[in-house]
Amino acid sequence: MPNQQATSVREWDEERLDSEINEAYRALFALRFQQATRQLQNYRSLREAKRTIARLRTIKRERQLAQIDEASE
What we know:
Blueprint: H1 6-9, H2 14-36, H3 44-72
């Protein structure tokens, strides 16, 4: 999911969002492994991977808070 806007991600269902989060964590693990073995060419990709995870988790948390607000009303 390189460089996608958060607005398009908000249209995804829960299952796809969860699978994308898992995939982003796997990609980050692979990048960290490449960095540890000095095979990583583009160090900026680590930063991009972390931001992708943060973006996805933020959207997931927004949904959780919206459900809590709906339940409390």
